Amino acid sequence: MTDYDKYFASLGSDHGIKLDDGQKAWYIKKADTLKDGMKTQYPSTLDECWEVANDGLWYGKSISRARTEKRICNVIYDRMAEVHTAWDLGRRDPTAIWFFQLVQKEVRLIDYYENNFENISHYVKILQDKSYIYGKHFVPHDAAIKSFQTGKSLVDFARDLGITLIKLDREVDILPATNYVRSMLDRCWFDEKKCAQGIKALEAYRKEWSDKNQCFVERELHDWASHGSSAFRYLARAEQIIAGGPSKDEVKAHLERMDRYRRERI
Questions:
Q1: Rounded CA gap, 146 and 125, in Å?
Q2: CA 116, chain centre distance (Å)
Q3: Which of 10-19, 137-146, 159-168, 206-215 has the lowest mean pLDDT?
Q4: Residue 3, class by beta-carbon neighbours within 10 Å (0-12 exposed, 13-18 middle, 19+ buried)?
Q5: Cβ-based neighbours of 109, under 8 Å, separated by 6 or more
Q6: CB count in 10 Å sphere of residue 58
Q7: Which residues of 183-218 are buried (b: 16+ CB within 10 A; e: fewer)?
Q8: What is the pLDDT of residue 125?
Q9: Residue 52: its pLDDT value, please?
Q10: Cα–Cα distance, 60 to 64 (Å, whole number)
């Protein structure tokens, strides 16, 4: 029995859909041409429509599982644990910030903020106005690029305002990080109200659709959901850094502070 025979048999036994030989031959011919795009173009059942929709989502199943397991709820801020942040930076595009705590093996998402057309001082004030005890703040690599006009980077400006931003290494390929996010999401607890906008972004984060190949490809679709989702990807990398010890930037900053301290003592 071929895979097609098994598929047609399941349509009959599970859904009561009976196909004649002509319909089966048509389906096989179309499926051989469209391949993974067959269920998108010609779904046989409502379940296949939902299956196709989930195929294009990076984290849809993981967020659904978090809802089922009631890990999207009221998450209490633990004053005994530091609050870390992970940012995706934008100007015309939104800047997105996740606020998270690491408690044992749990990743607790206690807050989320997103805005656009604001400068770095606005976001620093948002952090300072919250009553959290902070740990580390992680940003993408381009936050350290210096402006031609000012000669300073966003990292420099934030430091002047009292916040030390830790630059992550440049992403060459997002797939390793997105795969880690999927595994990490099973350890995540989300505050339902404060993180509502970020949760929606994770739920809606999609892959690109290829008209040529009639399937989703392993590239992100850049839309409104990509900013909060990119920040969450940086969060996943940050979690690995925190668990593994200080980053290169932290070590460098510590040595610079010690050097300044020694010079001041002389």
A1: 22
A2: 18
A3: 206-215
A4: exposed
A5: 75, 98, 99, 100, 188, 189, 190, 191, 195, 198
A6: 27
A7: ebbeebbbbeebbeebbebbbbbbbeeeeeeebbee
A8: 96
A9: 47
A10: 6
Say how far apart CA 177 and CA 95 lie, in whole Å: 20
The answer to whether the pTM exceeds 0.85 is no
22 by Cβ neighbours in 10 Å (0-12 / 13-18 / 19+) ranks as exposed
- Name 138's Cβ contacts closer than 8 Å, sequence gap at least 6: 84, 85, 86, 87, 165, 166, 168, 234, 235, 237, 238, 241
pLDDT tens track for 161-199? 999 999 999 987 888 888 899 889 999 999 999 999 999
Please give the structure tokens belonging to residue 257.
Answer: 């502070």
**pLDDT at residue 218 is higher than 60:** yes
Tens of pLDDT, residues 137-156: 999 999 988 887 788 999 99
